[in-house]
TrEMBL record:
Xref: Pfam families: COBRA1
Originating organism: Glareola pratincola (Collared pratincole)
Lineage of origin: Eukaryota, Metazoa, Chordata, Craniata, Vertebrata
Gene Ontology process terms (BP): negative regulation of transcription elongation by RNA polymerase II
Name of the molecule in the record: NELFB factor
Classification via InterPro entries: COBRA1 (IPR010405)
GO-annotated cellular components: NELF complex
Residue segments, region Disordered: 558-584
Length: 584
């Protein structure tokens, strides 16, 4: 028999059931083949007396015996599968599992027989503890391993971290790739950005759902995934692993898997923070709750800070904390209150600090909250508030009737201390960058151009990180008309973007994304010099080359013909702006 046929009968001999090999042998050694076939059919057919007289009817209708036996077999298999599932739910626990174990013992030798395999797999699926010996046999056979249910695989994985790692690894790679694709997406919008999807929507993503299913209620597997995420975060410093850590826990929370949620010490903290992320704001009530969790970390349990810091390092958490901080600072300006007098603001800074310190804490294994620098609260934040005041003062001045001395210019210098803070203090840098995003979203060109020079050198190049550049390019679409002005373009491109393009491929990509979106607004002379400056080098990656080619094609299509240029110079006037919903 061919190997395929051998598999069809795998294991029958062990049970004393005749198979194709036996029939072949009988026919080879007999003198009357037809009698031998009839005897084989009688011995191995369906042993129902009433059936014997009915079978000739099928012969009259030209129905082959194979078809009849196949349909009986399929029907019986369905009934057996239903019965197995029913046994798994009835009677006392020990009894039902005893029945299933006996059934597995009898049927396991047929596990490689394709027609019987589903039954054996179904029995194993319903057993909370498949005998070790059987698990080893399944694990050793690629096809069997592939065919078995996730319930059985969990039992294999929990004692084989390397095998589980092989299954999880491609999913984690896919997750990071999906995040990066969103950050580099060609759709630039202030309304739909990286942070737009709600936490609940994000948790429906394919990777989170697959991991949730793979873990089931198994605490051991959950711990393994968390260990993978910690290790990868340490190895790569990629903060998207922190997002996945929170999303996975909340996905299990959605399914009410108490077996895991009750043993993860971060559960309630993450749940509360998740509600803040949904609202993109930390309100007073939730702030108290979060503070309660942080203050409640007992002596000897400090290790939980490592996990909490990873939850707070999730970019969605940082985004929420930073936006809340900017909002608080504006409120304080209106209340004539200093940052040091606001407990809510101090709590936001404490959580930002814990999140930003996650990598160092997990790396050093020293679990204590990072010390807050006093000057951040006494000097840096009041400086940001003074920028808000500058804007108010300028706006009021503009409205006053002008006297002899003429209009008061907008302050153009920035305190040296501001630049120094952005270079040396991580939290100050994060808040400073969010303040710049805030003024850009308000279309405050003056404030934007004033603070932009401070971004060329920032703490660990945060101003050139993908998340910041993704948000900045989105917000800059609101200042679209300014791109027609030479001065604005020189400050933005020559003064900021191009300082890093050659050494940072990601910056090169973000500038090209922005120009793909706004090229028609940029002054033609400037556009030409930018096209030259942004030309990919031999070292450039495929993504940069692809974007550059797209831009070149767009510019070719956009070029007015020489005749048009000479006749109607007015064509170069900036296009009328369409108000975006954000500005209403």
């Amino acid at each position: 028999a061919a190997p395929g046929q051998a598999a069809m009968y795998a294991g029958l001999q062990e049970l004393g059931v005749a198979n194709g090999e036996d029939l072949k042998e009988t026919l080879t050694n007999c003198t009357e083949p037809l009698k031998a076939i009839e005897q084989f059919q009688t011995e191995n057919g369906v042993l129902l007396p009433s059936l014997q007289s009915a079978l000739p009817f099928l012969d009259l209708h030209g129905t082959p015996r194979l078809e009849f036996h196949q349909s009986v077999f399929d029907e019986l298999r369905e009934k057996l599968l239903e019965r197995v599932s029913a046994i798994a739910l009835e009677g006392k626990v020990e009894e039902r599992y005893k029945k299933l174990e006996d059934l597995l013992e009898k049927s396991f030798s047929l596990v490689k027989m394709p027609s019987i395999q589903p039954v054996v797999m179904c029995v194993m699926k319903h057993l909370p503890k498949v005998p070790e010996k059987k698990l080893k046999l399944v694990m050793a056979d690629k096809d069997l391993y592939k065919a078995c249910a996730v319930e059985v695989k969990r039992q294999i994985w929990q004692d084989n971290q390397a095998l589980f790692g092989d299954e999880v690894s491609p999913l984690l790679k896919q997750y990071i790739l999906e995040k990066e694709n969103i950050l580099f997406s060609n759709d630039i919008s202030v309304l739909h950005n990286f942070f737009s999807p709600s936490p609940k929507t994000r948790r429906q993503g394919e990777v989170v759902q697959k991991l949730t299913q793979m873990i089931g209620k198994n605490v051991k597997l959950y711990d393994m995934v968390l260990q993978f995420l910690r290790t990868l975060f340490l190895r790569t410093r990629n903060v998207h692993y922190c997002t996945l850590r929170a999303e996975l826990l909340m996905s299990l929370h959605d399914l009410e898997i108490s077996e895991i949620c009750t043993v993860d010490p971060c559960h309630k903290f993450t749940w509360c923070l998740d509600a803040c992320i949904r609202e993109k704001f930390v309100d007073n009530k939730r702030a108290r709750e979060l503070q309660g969790f942080l203050d409640g970390v007992k002596k000897g349990q400090e290790q939980v800070l490592g996990d909490l810091s990873m939850i707070l390092c999730d970019p969605f958490a940082i985004n929420t904390l930073a936006l809340s901080t900017i909002r608080h600072l504006q409120d304080l300006v209106g209340q004539d209150t200093l940052p040091r007098e606001s407990p809510d603001l101090l709590l936001l800074l404490r959580m930002l600090s814990l999140g930003q310190g996650a990598w160092d804490m997990i790396d050093s294994q020293v679990f204590k909250e990072p010390k807050m620098e006093v000057e951040l609260i006494t000097k840096f934040l009041p400086m940001l508030m003074s920028f808000v005041v500058d804007d108010h003062t300028f706006n009021v001045d503009q409205k006053l009737p002008s006297e002899e001395k003429g209009p008061i210019p907008y302050p153009s210098t920035i305190p040296e201390a501001f630049t120094k803070f952005l270079q040396e203090n991580r939290i100050a840098c994060e808040i400073g960058l969010y303040y710049i995003l805030h003024i850009t979203k308000q279309r405050n060109k003056n404030a934007f151009l004033r603070l932009l020079p401070a971004l060329v050198e920032t703490f660990s190049d945060l101003a050139f990180s993908d998340i910041f550049l993704h948000l900045l390019t989105g917000n800059l679409t609101l200042l679209g008309d300014e791109f027609a002005l030479e001065e604005f373009c020189t400050s933005l491109f020559d003064g900021f973007f191009l300082t890093a393009c050659s050494r940072k491929e990601n910056v090169h990509r973000h500038v090209l994304r922005l120009l793909l979106h706004l090229h028609h607004k940029v002054a033609p002379a400037k556009l030409e010099s930018l096209q030259k400056a942004l030309e990919p080098t031999k070292q450039s990656g495929e993504a940069v080359k692809e974007l550059y080619n797209q831009l070149t094609e767009k510019l070719e299509l956009h070029k007015p013909s020489p005749a048009e240029v000479t006749e109607t110079p007015s064509m170069e006037l900036p296009l009328p702006t369409v108000p975006t919903p954000a500005s209403r």
